[in-house]
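Quick start: what a row looks like.
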Amino acid sequence: MNEKEHVPEPSEGYVNILGYRLFYKSFGEALKGTVLCLHGGPGATHDYMLPLADLSVYGYRVVFYDQLGCGKSELPKNHALFVMERYVEEVEELRKVMRLGRVHLIGSSCGGQLALAYALKYQRRLRSLITIGGLHNVPMVFEEMQRMRKKLPPEVYRTMLRYEELGDYESPEYQKAVEVFYRKHLCRLEEWPKELTHSFEHLSKPVYHTMNGPNEFTIIGNIRYWDVTNELHKIRVPTLVTCGRYDEVSPKVARDIHRRIKNSRLKIFPRSSHLPFWEERDRFMNTVREFLETLEIMQDNKLVKGLRTALREVEEGKTRPLDELVRELNLEDEV
C-alpha cells in the first residue's frame, strides 16, 4: 500500500478490564467505524497484527490490545482465568469501557476462534466479523495439521515424532524441525518481520500451555475439544472468512466456516500461509477494505429505504415506537 507511510501515530495505554490492566494501542479516528483486532496464540501479543493499522488510512479507527496474561497486559496468578468464556467477556467489557460502539471484529488464528465465540454471544454488538486463519473446530484443525506435517521431509517428521515421544519440546533439534513446518505453513516470507518475531519471543507460556499445550501438534490444553460447528448457523452478521492456501489452519477449515455462516464471503490467498496480512499485504488490505466499503453502501441503502418507509407510514397516519425504528435501521451504535 503506497499510503502505509501515512498511517497515523498511535495512542496507547492501559485500561482496567474485569479487574486487570490490559494494554491497548489505537490508530486513527472512527470516521467510518472501529476495527477491533484479536490476536492469536493463544498467548501471543498484538504486535504481529500491526499491518492491520493500514486500515486507519481509510477512515477506520483500528484498536489492538494484549489479552489477559499476554504481552504488556497483566499476568494473573490464577491460570484458571485462561478460558475462552472469560476472554469473550473480556472483549465485550473492553468494547464497553473504551466506548467503541458496534465494531468490525477481526480475529487472527486463535483470535479468529475468539471472534467466532464472541459473535455467537454478542453479535448485536458487531457491524461485521472477519476471521484470518480462524478456527471453529479444534479437533479438525489438529487432524489437518497432522496431515500437513506428514508431508514434510521424512527426516524432519521423524525428528518431530522422536522428541515428542520423549516429551522434549525444547530440544534445539526439535525446534529446528518445527521451524521447517512454520516456514511452510505459518509465514512463508524469507525474512520474518520483527513484529512477528517479537510476538513469538514474547509468547505467554502460562496462557499457551493452559489453553493449548506444549506446542501446535500436542493440544492437551482446555481448548482441545472446543467445537462450535453446529452453532455457526446462528451468526447473521456480515462475515468475511480468510486464510492462506498453505495455512496451518487449512483452507478446509475456512471452507467449513464459510459454508455454515449464511451469506458469508470466502477469500483464500494463493501465496500465503497463516499470515496473509504480511505475506500478501496489499492484496489482503484491499480485500478487507472492499468488504468494509461494501457494507457501508449496503447500510446506506438500508437506511434510505427505512427512512422512506417511515415517512410513508407517517403520511398514512401510522406510528411506531422510536426504539423499534432504531433497531430496524441498525442505529443503536453506542450500545
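That is the whole record. Residues 2-148+185-300 form a domain with the Rossmann fold fold (CATH 3.40.50.1820). The mean pLDDT is 92.
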